Amino acid sequence: MPLIFAGPDNDDDSDASVVVATRPKTKRPPLYKVMLLNDDYTPMEFVVAVLERFFGLNHAQAFEIMLTVHKKGLAVVGVFSHEIAETKVAQVMDFARQHQHPLQCTMEKE
Ligand code: TYC
Fold first, then answer.
1. Residue ranges for the chain with pLDDT beneath 50
2. Helices 82-98 and 44-55: crossing angle, nearest 10°?
3. What is the pLDDT of residue 1?
4. β strands within the chain, DSSP E
5. CA 109 to ligand 1 centroid distance, Å
6. Which of 64, 65, 57, 53 is nearest to 94 (CA)?
7. How far is 16 from 18, CA to CA, in rounded Å?
8. Pocket residues: Cβ below 6 A from ligand 1
9. Nearest Cα to 95, choosing from 60, 58, 48?
10. How far apart are CA 23 and CA 25, in angstroms?
11. CB count, 10 Å around CB of 34?
12. Residues 85, 11 contacting (CB under 8 angstroms)
């Protein structure tokens, strides 16, 4: 037969604090895909130069991604935090505008 004691507690802590295990909410920030779009006018060498300059790709990697964009219409060139993605898009768009090429670069939540 269980003995249930329902009287006042006697643990000397005045019931002042209750420790509850919690799981800290550490939601990782969302990531953004940065994409390059194909067009009929931007020279291939310019796109390769953009990929080397702003995305740290070597020449072979840059050429391969440029060809993917050329054939498929677009490609993801990197995945970044919102702030970094915005910066990359702005850098590419500014550089393309300076050289009067219609190259388009966009970002999208992953
Ligand atoms: N289609 C372009 C050409 O034939 C090359 C190109 C590749 C343009 C990738 C844009 O994002 C691009 N000159």
1. 1-7, 9-13
2. 140
3. 28
4. 32-37, 74-80, 104-109
5. 24
6. 53
7. 7
8. 36-40, 42-44, 47, 66, 69-70, 103
9. 48
10. 6
11. 22
12. no
